[in-house]
Amino acid sequence: MASRFEIEKLWREEKYKVMYFSQRHYNLIRELLKGNPSMEELESYIKEAYSLMPTTGSKTNAYEHMWGYFKKRATTEEKKKFFALLEHAKDDKAIKIYLYDLAKKYKVKYLTDSTILNGK
User: Fold this and answer.
1) Domain DUF1722 spans what residues (predicted)?
2) 103, 107, 110, 111 alpha-carbon torsion, rounded to 10°
3) pLDDT tens digits, 22-56
4) Could you tell me the pTM of the whole model?
5) Of 21, 92, 97, 106, whose CB count within 10 A is highest?
6) Domain ranges of the chain
């Protein structure tokens, strides 16, 4: 049986990727974690979220949440680049790489450990 620590670690690593695919599943998992779920329950919700087609809105929401870690520290140029990528990105890879690079620059381990950015 997985410990609460292991369950929370998995959620920390997966939460923005879940949000990217489904805000509804993100909210369901947050509610689930208010109780005492098993690792299997959490993994099941995560897997279900990943089976869905992300919408432009869900992707934008996830990117903007991640951007929140930098918005007070980022330079004007970094801010311009982020919002240009967000507005014109047909390729999600470019914005994910940019957010990962910012996470490394500003030492935001929470994001560098996130599966949406580190490709795990």
Assistant:
1) 15-118
2) 10
3) 999 999 999 999 999 999 999 999 999 999 999 99
4) 0.94
5) 21
6) 4-50, 56-118
